[in-house]
Design a protein that fits this description.
The protein is of the alpha+beta class and 444 residues long. It is built from twelve helices and 22 strands. The chain folds into three domains: 2-43 and 166-242 and 327-439, Naphthalene 1,2-dioxygenase Alpha Subunit, Chain A, domain 1 (Alpha-Beta Complex), CATH 3.90.380; 47-146, Rieske Iron-sulfur Protein (3-layer Sandwich), CATH 2.102.10.10; 248-319, no CATH class. The chain binds FE2/S2 (inorganic) cluster (FES) and fe (ii) ion.
Length: 444
């Protein structure tokens, strides 16, 4: 990534400037949630959908945050626009859900609007009297696309999205070609009994692998000193090496066995294994013994196999480093977008406050993305499942899903005034320092 210089090692972080004590009322207080609503959600760029949900002119969907409702629509010029979902006559909500239309006609008294929001016609103008149509178009809100995501900002005076994201984020994510990725296998949105920030916290640290994902210990090394961090404006990225645990102590055959086991926990590694086996085979002598040249490790062969496999599929990986072939980068785009990404795939987790405004609830949306050749995208596309009953996530995600309401139950106890963060959880501290800046307060 361009920002390699702005990435820091754990030992270079300044913990004195980070809030390591976090007040608990921010997860339970209606008053604080109300402040978040005004000072964060009504002012900040937020992901409201994917551009490929609205492929054609006239495709539209509703986006809600708290009790506010917006309409996203692709215009005849190909541009996605956002409007307040309220008729300019007497305020009726124009639509809900998603659909396709040539114009929006309000069902109440039949005023109609173009895809660009202009008021086209009113029913029975003789009953309406004189009206300046140019002053009664739908109210527009800023909408921009980045990396295939549609961002919306409820604040009509918002600065451009690029200013909010900043160059480090934009250039750091560009080589992955996220805008060409498709939801595959997992695309679920459902209510959760925890505050929206509990979700953000849960995916910002690896410390809890010890407690609730013991199966991951075989492949994920929890060692802060091996991780690098980038704090870019309101956003952050943490990079942890992805390799077979205790790799230093293993001989090459053991390392290779470890890689073969990866698909059990990381299914997408399976597509890379045939090429990996071929590369390993090339290093075997006539008697079958493995002779890896100095500095060639199983990790390096995995990176090479990933690059070869993805290139053969048609993905241009020329902008990605070897580390990006194997290592997950964990991005947090403030306020509510978490993504773990490596070459060819990403998983995105977003949480929003629940529309019922109870701070003890939220809605999370988890989606796995994969880069597929264009002709396969429609076939493998995972359509959104909303509020499923008894849905089972893949093992690690299911463990998180069950954990988060348990934390919320503990946080609700009034006698517990603050949480005490471990240093490994530095990204949580950083996230809350941004929350505090928006709210104009202090962490604890
Ligand atoms: S409220 Fe929409 S036409 Fe009357
Ligand atoms: Fe987890």
């Amino acid at each position: 990534m361009k920002s390699a210089n702005s990435m820091k090692w754990f030992s270079e972080l300044d913990f004195e400037r980070l809030p390591m004590r976090i007040s608990t009322d921010r997860y339970t207080s209606r008053e604080i949630q109300e402040r978040e609503r005004e000072l964060i959600w009504m002012r900040v760029w937020q992901v409201a959908g994917r551009a490929d949900e609205l492929p054609n002119a006239g495709d539209w969907k509703e986006y809600r945050i708290f009790d506010q409702s917006y309409l996203l629509v692709r215009g005849s010029d190909g541009k996605v626009r956002g409007f307040v979902n309220a008729c300019r006559h007497r305020g009726n909500a124009l639509c809900q859900g998603k659909g396709h239309t040539a114009r929006f006609t309000c069902p109440y008294h039949l005023w109609s609007y173009g895809l660009d929001g202009r008021l086209l016609a009113v029913a029975r103008p003789d009953l309406v009297g004189p009206i300046d149509k140019s002053q009664h178009g739908l109210l527009q809100v800023p909408v921009e696309c980045f990396a295939g995501f549609i961002f919306l900002n409820p604040d009509p005076k918002a600065a451009p999205l690029a200013d909010f994201l900043g160059n480090d984020v934009i250039e750091g994510l560009a080589p992955y070609r996220l805008e060409e990725m498709t939801p595959v296998g997992l695309n679920v949105r459902q209510s959760l009994d925890c505050n929206w920030k509990v979700v953000m916290d849960a995916f910002s640290e690896g410390y809890h692998i010890l407690g609730i994902h013991p199966q991951l210990l075989r492949v994920i090394v929890i060692d802060s000193n091996k991780n690098r961090f980038g704090f870019f404006g309101d956003h952050s990225v943490a990079v942890a090496p992805f390799e077979v645990a205790n790799v230093e102590g293993f001989g090459p055959e053991k390392q290779i066995e470890g890689i073969r086991d990866l698909p059990e926990t990381f299914p997408t590694v399976a597509e890379v294994l045939p090429r990996f086996e071929a590369l390993v085979q090339a290093h075997r002598g006539a008697d079958g013994t493995l002779q890896l040249p100095e500095r060639v490790t199983a990790r390096i062969l995995l990176q090479q196999a990933t690059r070869d496999t993805l290139s053969r599929k048609g993905l241009d990986v020329s902008g990605l480093t070897d580390d990006q072939m194997s290592d997950n980068q964990g991005w947090v785009l403030f306020p509510n977008f978490f993504m773990t990404i490596r070459a060819g795939e990403a998983t995105v987790i977003m949480s929003v406050p629940h529309p019922d405004a109870d701070p003890n609830r939220c809605i999370w949306h988890v989606t796995s993305y994969m880069w597929l050749p264009p002709d396969l995208r429609a076939q493998y596309r995972a359509e959104l499942i909303e509020e499923p009953k008894d849905y089972k996530y893949f093992l690690a995600l299911q463990q998180d899903y069950e954990q988060m309401p348990r934390q919320q139950r503990g946080l609700r106890n009034r006698a517990l005034e603050h949480m005490s963060l471990a240093r490994e959880e530095v990204c949580i501290a950083r996230f809350h320092s941004v929350v505090d800046r928006y709210l104009g307060g202090k962490a604890a």
